[in-house]
Structure to design on (389 residues):
């Protein structure tokens, strides 16, 4: 009897050892996003899309036979929370690489932590320059990469389309007073003025908290601009376009990737019709990669995918691609990321990375029939190539 119990105990230990060993063979990849809090809709999009990518990778056999273990954290759009998450991913979880599915605030404070640890991070859509640049050391964070656009690049591309395609000559700007709003609007203003357009006014609103945009819009209406460039996330964007319509403003509204959410379309309703945005996803891209993702996302989550999800999916897949080439050594992964060329991404063909910044066309979408549809693309190399420092 005792011998049977002993044998059974040995068997259980053996099973546990095998299971533990198998788990130990998983490749730990970190991920953080604002899953709760004021940006929860975007956090959910990022998480959903990356989990879709994870399933595709692991169902196909993982990376050289090893499954990817995605370690998910909620930063709640809180930079302090993000710092704690970064330290956990490095010290506790031993992540070989990290994907940021978050905004500029949480992403830029974690970048120097991962940089110091020598852990590669790919940011999905955070726009602030300090994600890939260390302002204290005055040098690039060479372990940090960005799949989305640098804020100044996206803003400049929006201005390129506004002046050259929409023939805007008089422009007013309204943007949120945070990293995102300042970066996007400064890039827009600089390019628009370089192309000969007049900036009639620049106004910034408080974030979070601003709900009444009528005083800002009334001032804009007095100037009678050809075009209004608005920078904000989906809640603020929806309020701006609704209140502009209520005030009888007929100027073309041009937004950016913060508008790119099913929530914007839902909250803005009919007022969203005709709004144009510069973004990182073309829903009408005929490539099977894109159309299959859009179909699979809707099937899995019963809603349309957005720029945040698509950009985060690409960030994950870019990292996985590098691990597949280099193995799990962090320095080797960094080298593979640096050598990325002509990568066929969901959000466009990536020519290369320049000091961690992506080089690819900026997509222009318009709301038509309550959906985002293709309107154009900005692929002028002068505009989309990031500056080197």
């Amino acid at each position: 009897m005792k011998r049977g119990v002993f044998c059974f105990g040995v068997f259980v230990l053996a099973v546990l050892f095998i299971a533990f060993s198998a788990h130990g063979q998983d490749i730990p990849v970190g991920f953080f996003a604002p899953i709760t809090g004021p940006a929860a809709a975007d956090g959910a999009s990022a998480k959903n899309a990356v989990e879709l990518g994870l399933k595709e990778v692991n169902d196909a056999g993982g990376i050289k036979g090893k499954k990817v273990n995605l370690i998910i954290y909620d930063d709640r759009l809180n930079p302090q929370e993000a710092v704690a998450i970064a330290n956990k991913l490095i010290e506790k979880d031993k992540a070989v690489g990290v994907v940021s599915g978050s905004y500029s605030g949480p992403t830029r404070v974690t970048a120097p932590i991962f940089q110091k640890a020598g852990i590669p991070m790919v940011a999905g859509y955070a726009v602030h320059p300090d994600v890939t640049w260390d302002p204290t050391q005055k040098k690039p964070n060479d372990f940090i990469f960005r799949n989305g656009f640098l804020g100044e690049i996206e803003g400049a591309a929006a201005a390129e389309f506004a002046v050259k395609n929409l023939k805007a000559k008089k422009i007013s700007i309204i943007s949120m007073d945070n990293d995102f709003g300042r970066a996007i609007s400064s890039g827009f203003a600089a390019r628009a003025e370089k192309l000969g357009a007049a900036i009639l006014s620049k106004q910034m609103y408080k974030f979070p908290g601003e709900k009444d945009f009528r005083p800002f819009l009334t001032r804009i209406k007095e100037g009678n601009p050809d075009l209004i460039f608005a920078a904000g996330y989906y809640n603020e964007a929806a309020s701006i376009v609704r209140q502009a319509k209520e005030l009888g403003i007929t100027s073309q509204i041009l937004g950016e990737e913060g508008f790119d959410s099913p929530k914007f379309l839902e909250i803005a309703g009919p007022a969203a019709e005709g709004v144009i945005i510069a973004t990182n996803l073309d829903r009408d891209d005929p490539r099977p990669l894109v159309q299959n993702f859009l179909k699979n996302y809707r099937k899995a989550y019963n809603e349309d995918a957005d720029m945040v999800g698509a950009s985060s999916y690409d960030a994950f897949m870019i990292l996985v691609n590098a691990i597949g080439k280099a193995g799990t050594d962090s320095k080797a992964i960094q080298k593979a990321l640096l050598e990325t060329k002509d990568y066929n991404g969901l959000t466009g063909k990536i020519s290369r990375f320049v000091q961690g910044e992506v080089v690819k066309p900026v997509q222009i979408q318009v709301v038509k029939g309550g959906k985002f549809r293709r309107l154009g693309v900005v692929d002028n190399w002068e505009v989309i190539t990031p500056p080197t420092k």
User: Anything to note?
Assistant: Confidence is low (pLDDT under 50) at residues 5-23.
